[in-house]
Design a protein that fits this description.
With about 525 residues, this protein is α/β, with parallel strands linked by helices. The protein has 19 helices and 14 strands. The strands form three sheets. It has a nine-stranded mixed sheet with strand order 1-2-3-5-4-6-7-13-14, sandwiched between helices. The chain has a three-stranded antiparallel sheet with strand order 8-9-10. Strands 11-12 form a two-stranded antiparallel ribbon. Helix 2 (about 65-85) packs antiparallel against helix 9. The longest helix is centred in the first third of the chain and has 27 residues, at about 30-55. The chain is globular. This is Polyhydroxyalkanoate depolymerase. InterPro entries: AB_hydrolase_fold (IPR029058), PHA/PHB_synthase (IPR051321), PHB_depo_C (IPR009656), PHB_depoly_PhaZ (IPR010915). Pfam families: PHB_depo_C.
Length: about 525
């Protein structure tokens, strides 16, 4: 049902300006009803398939031990899983490893609004345990649930007090709660940062990179005392004009009216959000699957074969992946269309044209919140350079408060999940957070003092460079601040770093905050290669 105006869904920011609702088309509006009808009509067939799977899988049934019986059971399971509606998965993180000790983790809702809950993964630790940085992970509101970042949360839990934005499926929010658009999204973020009283660091994964940057820019412009200490933007579409991908090109080719006419529909009864206009999850999932249809067909064919062959491990991996992948949520029409228009069509943020509640979003106002950007070399959703563009926008931020990292051989999802994220990206984010955390940044100095009684040889030094000094920032992990430190220690050339031995590296590493960078970023190996190439 079209609405003539809206109001903000969060009271402390007042009502948003009234505007005409996005509407839809006569073709798209009945889609949700047709989908619900299809789901209902398939119910008996799914029940029969589920019963058939159990019957032909029962070890007491002699047919279950034949190849024909296994194939029938496998076919029943494939059909039932391919046609079911997947609900919101669980995070499933009951414990974590903290300082070598396995501790219990409890999910606790600490902040709540109609469209979002802030979940704290509370760790059961001793009262005298050292405080660790608060990290807010802003999950994407782009179809999948926040549980898609389960691996991200798991990797950060040992060293941080982790919070995550758990966005609500729009079909579950009654129409009486009002609308929710991009301005509301930014309002929610500002409210969360104020709730944390600025004692936090923010990690934005993909889509929320833009609203997180906008929220912090607005807070800085208003001299808000609760600005987060740092923000890490990962694979986000800050400037989609840089190295545009197929996803970016689609938005330009179709235009906003096409999306409004073809993907916006209305939530049907008996859902709590009945009559709310949404971009439904089942249409999003259709888009996800169609982009790599052959891959999904192959995956389900292999799943069938695993079931027939009795390969339980690979079959379970398939179930775990698709339980998450096929669980999708509806987005409010106003949020989806405003995001498409602002980020992908008008490029409002990098052009300096983006506003929030009628006020300009000026990233040059950011001076207190440190910035780290992370990109994947093979990212086909947010191309290389799109996230890094944030550094150009944050022109007033000092060099010691900015870091960029490009991870080799990972795609979009590898930026925030998987083995390379755990081994290469997460430790760098942790170092970045520690270097911008008051009270923890000084901790390594105590370690240096403990070593003072042990004579450690100093690294080879020069009073001045032999010829032109090398640009040490060409070493991944070395920024202007660390280059200055190295120069002060008499190190100006790649060959000096390449020749550092163990004790020399230890002595130099103790002067950095936090320590461990030389080995983790492989400075010696990088310097050796650079010295040879030059």
């Amino acid at each position: 049902m079209p609405r003539s105006s809206k109001e903000s869904g969060i009271g402390e920011f007042g009502g948003a300006p009234a505007y005409a609702d996005w509407g839809g088309s006569a073709t798209s509006l009945p889609l949700y009803w047709l989908y619900e009808a299809a789901q209902s009509s398939l119910g008996p067939a799914r029940a029969l398939a589920d019963a058939g799977k159990l019957y032909f899988k029962n070890p007491a049934n002699p047919i279950a031990h034949t190849e024909w019986g296994r194939k029938v059971s496998a076919l029943c399971e494939v059909f039932e899983r391919a046609t079911r509606r997947y609900g919101k998965p669980e995070f499933g993180l009951p414990t974590t490893l903290a300082r070598g000790e396995r501790v219990a983790v409890t999910e606790k809702r600490v902040w709540s609004r109609p469209f979002c809950d802030l979940i704290h993964f509370e760790r059961m630790r001793s009262a005298n345990a050292r405080k660790q940085p608060n990290l807010i992970i802003v999950a994407p509101m782009s179809g999948h649930y926040a549980t898609l970042l389960r691996g991200t949360v798991e990797a950060m839990l040992p060293d941080h007090e982790v919070y995550i934005t758990d966005w609500t499926d729009a079909r579950m929010v009654p129409l009486s709660e009002g609308a929710f658009d991009l301005d509301d999204y930014i309002d929610y973020l500002i409210s969360i940062f104020r709730f944390m009283k600025g004692d936090c660091h923010v990690m934005a994964v993909c889509q929320p990179a833009v609203p997180v940057l906008a929220a912090i820019a607005r807070m800085e412009a208003e001299n808000d005392p609760y600005v987060p200490r740092s923000m890490t933007l990962m694979g986000g579409p800050i400037d989609t004009r840089e190295n545009p991908t197929a996803v970016n090109d689609l938005a330009h080719e179709r235009g906003l009216d096409w999306f409004r006419r073809n993907v916006i529909t209305v939530v049907p009864w008996p859902n709590p959000g009945v009559m709310r206009q949404v971009y439904p999850g089942f249409l999003q999932l259709t888009g996800f699957v169609s982009m790599n249809l052959d891959r999904h067909v192959t995956a389900h064919t292999e799943f069938f074969n695993h079931l027939v062959d009795g390969d339980g491990d690979n079959a379970e991996k398939h179930r775990e992946f698709y339980d998450e992948y096929l669980a999708v949520m509806d987005l409010t029409a106003e949020f989806y269309l405003q995001t498409v228009d602002t980020v992908f069509i008008r490029h409002a943020l990098p052009k300096g044209e983006m506003t929030h509640r009628g006020k300009p979003v000026d990233c040059s106002k950011i001076t207190r919140c440190a910035l780290m950007t992370v990109e994947g070399e093979r990212d086909d959703i947010s191309g290389v350079g799109q996230t890094k563009a944030a550094h150009k926008l944050c022109s007033s931020l000092s060099d010691d408060k900015r870091v960029h990292y490009l991870q080799e051989r990972v795609g979009h999802y590898g930026v925030f999940n998987g083995s390379r994220f755990r081994a290469e990206i997460a430790p760098r984010i942790h170092d970045f957070i520690l270097s911008n955390e008051p009270g923890l940044a000084r901790a390594p100095k105590a370690a240096k003092a403990d070593r003072a009684t042990q004579p450690v040889p100093e690294p080879a030094r020069l009073d001045e460079p032999k010829g032109p000094a090398d640009d040490l920032t060409r070493i991944a992990g070395v920024g202007p601040k660390l280059q200055k430190l190295l120069n002060e220690e008499g190190i100006f050339h790649f060959w000096q770093i390449a020749r550092l031995d163990g004790p020399e590296r230890e002595a130099l590493d103790a002067k950095m905050t936090p320590p461990g960078r030389i080995a983790r970023d492989k400075w010696v190996e990088q310097a050796s290669n650079l010295a040879r190439s030059d």
